[in-house]
Write a structure and sequence with these properties.
The protein is α+β, with helices and mostly antiparallel strands. The protein has 3 helices and 3 strands. It is rod-shaped. This is Flp pilus assembly protein TadG.
Length: 148
């Protein structure tokens, strides 16, 4: 439509030009879209870290079943965690602390607890914009002594 037709229909004089309106709309919507995409990425990293930590704890508990004493179980669990980290887990070697010990409520069960400092994940950049996960992630797996 040309300008003469728009003016005849009663459109105000300054409102006929629409150039640049999409740029203004994009400038208003873009920060929210970027925040949404950043939130999706951070949530994915957090979910992957929790799943990976749980998997490492389960593998460490499975490996420690072969131990006879608590110190042997702890060394087997630590060895399995180190192997998992060297095999390409998303955590740095040495960033995970392993604790193996008997369950206080049941003497036939012992627990393997794997603790990760979540600041090593590198998502602290978004801490002012998005809700973040706790600074320490912990996963505990209980195994019956003897594996049965």
């Amino acid at each position: 439509m040309d300008l003469r037709r728009l003016r005849r229909r009663g459109a105000p004089k300054g409102w006929t030009c629409r150039r640049g309106s999409s740029a203004v709309e994009f400038a208003l919507v873009a920060p929210m879209l970027l925040l949404l995409f950043a939130g999706i990425a951070v949530f994915g990293i957090c979910l992957g870290a929790a799943h990976n930590l749980r998997q490492i704890a389960a593998e460490a508990a499975r490996a420690s079943v072969a131990g006879v004493t608590d110190s042997e179980r702890a060394s087997l669990a630590q060895k399995m965690v180190n192997q998992s980290l060297n095999a390409g887990a998303m955590f740095r070697p040495g960033s995970i602390v392993v604790q193996v010990g008997p369950d206080p409520s049941d003497a036939t069960v012992y627990t393997v607890t794997v603790t990760l400092d979540a600041t090593t994940l590198g998502i602290n950049v978004f801490s002012r914009l998005l809700p973040m996960l706790p600074s320490v992630l912990r996963s505990t797996v209980s195994v019956r002594k003897g594996g049965l």
